[in-house]
């Protein structure tokens, strides 16, 4: 029988910011001048909400194809390359294994629309604590309902994320 990672949502941890900063410094050393910027995204970047205890990082690079040359160096640091992993022109890495994952790293070339979408989502929820709290509760309910089914957990969040993406994009246009 295949063992699956448990979907776990925990209360916001103050050390998530420091964990992001620490890893960002390591990755800046690895990639050097290829990096344009590094952003803390996802629920661990939104104060006060529950999240899976995995730090999501978004790295903007000058040339996406150059990232592939760093796969071995990242592997030496505990990262596993997942290629595009379902999003064209992204490079995705996980740190840790299936059961001890600590970081997700999403890498996009500067100018990719996914960069702004992720940042707008984070910033919108920071500025709208009622909606952030709703999202926090939704994730907690989904984690309880689907403790060993990450696909259903993700599907359960999808409609909320799309609504927030639309609101955040509209707000950005106003």
TrEMBL record:
It comes from the Bacteria. InterPro entries: GrpB/CoaE, NT_sf. PANTHER family: GRPB DOMAIN PROTEIN (AFU_ORTHOLOGUE AFUA_1G01530) (PTHR34822), GRPB FAMILY PROTEIN (PTHR34822:SF1). This is GrpB family protein. It comes from Tepidibacillus decaturensis.
